[in-house]
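This follows on from our talk about sequence and fold. Please put the record directly below this note.
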Amino acid sequence: MSVKMYNRDQDIFFKAKGSIVGSLVGNERRMSSARIVSFLVVGMLLVPAYAIDARAEEDRAKRAMEKNDRNGDGKVSRKEWRKSKDIFDAIDSDDDGFLTVTEFRARFGSRKTKTTKARSQSKVPPKSAIAPAGKAQGNMYFIDAHSQWDHRVDEERVLSLMNHGGVYRTLLSVHLKRPWVEVVAFGKAAPERIIPTVQIKGRGYHKGPRGKFFDRLNDQMGNDAFGAMAEVHVWHDSDGGKYQEIRIDFDDGLFLAAFNEAKRKGWPLIVHIEFASLSYEGKRGYMEKLEEFIRTNRNHPIVMIHMAQLEEPNVRRLLASHPNLHFMTSHASPFYQFGGKPFINLIDDDKFKPQWKKLILDYPDRFVFALDNVFSKFWMPDLYLDKMKMWWRVAADLPNDIAQAFAHGNAERLWKLTPRLGGGMMTPDEAMKALGPVTGYSANAAHR
C-alpha cells in the first residue's frame, strides 16, 4: 500500500477522532467516565495498522538518536558511535563528523533530506547489450531468478501467471511433495520459460538422514537438464515453530557439497541467512563467517536471497568490500512486512526508498530480481500480479539501462541465459486486457 494511501487513511482517522472528541466535549456533563473511555477506544480502533506503521520509521530515527547520543547534546559523535565506521559514514550525509536525527530519518527512509553526500561509485561492468537506452517500455521484461513449485500448483498456472506478469523466465525448483523429475519435465516442455533448478532443501538437509540429501543431490547433478541451483540454507529461523529451523556453518558437509557442485557447473551460489532474526552475537558470528567465505571464493558469484534481511548501510559496506557479492530482492517489499519474519522493505510508494535507489544506482550490476514464490498461495493471481504490478512501477523509476539490468540483465549474465528475442513483454494491466483471466490451478495453501 502506498504512502499516499497511508496519508489518506490518516486524514480519515483524524477527522473521525476530531468528531468524537467534539462529541465528548459537547456532552461531557451527561456522559459517565466509562462511556468517555469507550468512545476513545472506538476512536483509536479507527487507526489502520498501516497508518501506525507509516510512522514507525520516524520512531526508529528518534530511538537511534536516543540510543547513541550518550552525552545528550542532540547529536552523535564518532566517539559515541559503537558500530562500524562504514555505517557512520553512510549515515553522515554532510560529512561533519556528527549524526543528527535528520540524518537517521533519511537513512530509515521516512522523508528526504536536502543534503546529499557524494560517494565513490563501484566500477560497473559494461551495460547489458539488451538494454538500449531510451526504450525501457518496449524492451522490458522480468526474470524471476528464484521460485519454488509444490504439488498443489500446475504447470498451466505457472506459465499463465508469468505471461500475465511480464515474467519471461523463472528459475524453478521443487519442494514439499513434488518430485524433482517433474521440474525437469516442465523445463523440457517450456524450454524458453522454465529453468529447472536443483533442489537443496528437503529431507536430509532440513531433517532426517543426511544421506537422503546427498543421494538427491547426486541424482539431480547427473541430469543435464538443470541450469541453476536453488538457495542453500545457512541460517533459517523457525518463526516460532512454523518452519524448520536450520543452523549450519560454511564448513558443513551439506553446504560444501552444494557449493562444490555449483562451482563445478559455474552457477551462482544463492545463500540464505536471515540476519535480522539472529541475536547480536549471532549476527556478528555469521557475518564474519560469510565474509571469510566470500573472500576465500572471490572468483565465484555469491547471491544473498531476501537481501539477507540487511539494511542499506550493511549492504553498502558488503558490496564495497566484495566484488563477487550480489543481493536478491525477493521478499524485501511491503507484501512481507506483516508476517512473522523481519524482512526488510526496499520500497515506498511504488519506488525504491531514496537510500536504496542510490545504492542500486551506485552498484547496478549487483542486484537481482526474484519473487521466491514458496507455497501454492504465492501462485494465486491476485498476490502474484499485485506484486508484479508493483515491481513494474518500481523499475520504471530507474534509468532505463539500470532498470533492464535489474529486471533481467543481471540474471542473464550470472546464469548465462539467452536474452529474450523480440523485445519486451506486456505489463500486467496490458496482459489482462489482451489475454483474459489467469488460467490453471493453485490450491492457495501454505502448510509444510
User: Anything to note?
Assistant: The chain has three domains: 1-54, 55-118, 136-435.
